Hints:
Layout: H1 2-5, H2 9-20, E1 25-32, E2 35-45, E3 48-51, E4 55-56, H3 65-79, E5 84-90, H4 94-101, E6 105-112, E7 115-117, E8 132-133, H5 139-146, E9 153-156, E10 159-162, H6 165-173, E11 177-179, E12 186-189, E13 197-203, H7 207-223, E14 228-234, H8 237-245, E15 256-261
Parallel strand pairs: 3-5, 13-14
Antiparallel strand pairs: 1-2, 2-3, 2-4, 5-15, 6-14, 6-15, 7-14, 8-11, 9-10, 11-12, 12-13
Helix pairs in contact: 7-8
Amino acid sequence: MELLRTTQPRVLRDLRYAIHSPENFQKFIATHEDKVVGHLSARIFGKVGWLAAAQISHEYQRKGIFNNLRIKAEQWLTSQGVEDIRVAIASDSLKIRNMFERKSYSPIAFAIEPNIFINPEDIDRNPADHFSLVSDTQLFERLKEALKSLNHNIMIDAAYVPLTADMCKVLLNEKRVYTDITQKIFIILSPVYAPMTFQGFIVADSIEGYRLAARALQAFAAKEDATEIIAHAPSCRESALGLANAGFSWSHPYSVIIYQKSKE
């Protein structure tokens, strides 16, 4: 357990999928003289396959390693019956974006990932009280409608996941979905993975809605004694202004672009 608490969020994400859903997770590794020089992982959610952007050692770039890993991962996903293959890439990772764009991947959605550092003892916990746990599965359609700009994807545990009725039920069973009294604001919480880092996904219909959700996200994080919060949200004027009004900034992480492979 100590290993899990001290692992970076995106590394731990892969570990979680490998441990809890081994049949839906596969890691592809490139080696040279017993040295790992590159890797790429693939995961399956329903009928959608997701690639994690490849990591290639600097001295081994431009040697075809990325293409070999990508092809093997895509072949594995296709063999498992996926209908779409996607990858989420930081918007400023121009080299990686170009690598995928040259291989018939096109952007389909944008998300923002601002962060904020807090002292849990100084955070007002009351904003969290304005949101209640969602237990009604009928809210699935309302939440799905709110996710149009993200092509019906939500951020869960550091990975963008297509929202389906089954996924919605899982989140409700895990008591991770909250909404306000108007049912126009949704917050989906993720546990604290890396030391003191808390992640949450929010979607709303106004600047004020995003501000309220962002304040509540800080309150939820403070209850977990987290000191850094990463808020994931669709990329739009309302979310950017609302999160900024709640003190979030874009120093790191950044905006993310979701790519989908064109069907041949």
